[in-house]
Amino acid sequence: MRLERKVAIITGVASGIGCSSALMFAREGAKIVAADINDQAGQETVKTIQDRGGEALYVHTNVSKSADTENLIRRAIEYYGKIDVLMNVAGILPRHIPLEEVDDAFWDRVYSINVKGVFHTMKYAIPFMKKAGSGSIINVAAMAGVTPPVPNACAYCSSKGAIITLTKAVSLELTPYHVRANCLNPAGTDTPMMKNALGEVSPGENDKDGITHIPLGRLIKPEEVAYAAVFLASDESLMLTGTMINVNAGDI
C-alpha cells in the first residue's frame, strides 16, 4: 500500500474531492484525520472508512477559524502522534457576480475560507512536520486560478490563484526541512458544489451539462483528482515541491 503508516489530515471530507481522497488514502493504508463543517456527512465518510477496515478520526472544523484549525492539528497529534500529509480541500464556489457588484462581505467570505483556511492549517501543522523532517502538503486550488474560465468570477478565481502562489512561497521555506508543498488544480469536477454552480450559470441550450468546452468531453470524477493526490502524498513524489499538477481534462 502506497500510504501505509502515514497519517493524513484532509479537510472538506463531507463530499466531492475531499471525500474521495479520504476513502482512497485510507484504502492505500493511511490513517485519516477527517475535517469538515458538515458533521453528518463528514462522520459518514469516517464511518465508511472504518467499515472498510481503515482508521479514521472526525474533527469538526471551520477552516476560516484559527481556533478550529489549531484544534484539528492538536487532535491529530494527540490521536496519532504525527502528521505526514496535510491535504487542504475545503473551499467554496460562490455565485458569479460582476466585480463592481462585489461587496466586502462577499469578497472576505471567499478569501476567509478558500485562502485563510489553507493558511490556518499550514500554520499549525508545519511545526510538527519540520520537527519530523518530512511531510507533504497538498493544497487543492483550481484551473480557474491559472486561467479564469468564465466572466464574473473574480473573487473565486483570484482566491485560487492566491492558493497557488502561497503554496509556491511556502515550499521555499520548507525545503530545508524536507517538507514538500504542492498544488492540485482540478478543472470542472463532478461534485455537489460544481453542480450547484452549473445550475446557477444556466448553460445554454446546446450545452446542457456545461461541459462541451472540455476537450475530453466530460466533467472530472472526484476520484480522478484523488489519484493525483495519492501520488503527491506518497514517497513517489519526494522530488516534487512548489509545483502544480493540473487535472484539467485537456481544458487549458
Secondary structure blueprint with pairings:
Blueprint: E1 7-11, H1 16-27, E2 31-36, H2 39-51, E3 56-60, H3 66-80, E4 85-88, H4 104-114, H5 116-132, E5 135-140, H6 154-174, E6 179-186, H7 192-201, H8 222-233, E7 244-247
Parallel strand pairs: 1-2, 1-4, 2-3, 4-5, 5-6, 6-7
Task: Describe the fold and architecture.
- With 252 residues, the protein is an alpha/beta fold.
- It has a single domain, classed as NAD(P)-binding Rossmann-like Domain (Rossmann fold, 3-Layer(aba) Sandwich), CATH 3.40.50.720.
- The chain has 8 helices and 7 strands.
- Strands 3-2-1-4-5-6-7 form a 7-stranded parallel sheet, with helices on both faces.
- Strand 5, helix 6 and strand 6 (179-186) form a beta-alpha-beta unit.
- The radius of gyration is 17 Å and the shape is globular.
- The two termini are 33 Å apart.
- Mean pLDDT is 93; it is low at 201-209.
* CATH architecture level-2 label: 3-Layer(aba) Sandwich
Average predicted local confidence, pLDDT: 93
**Cα-atom radius of gyration:** 17 Å
| Fold-level CATH name | Rossmann fold
| Proportion of residues in extended strands | 15-25%
CATH homologous superfamily label: NAD(P)-binding Rossmann-like Domain
Helix count from the secondary structure assignment: 8
Q: How would you spell out the order of helices and strands?
A: EHEHEHEHHEHEHHE
- CATH class placement: Alpha Beta
Low-confidence parts, pLDDT < 50 over ≥5 residues? 201-209
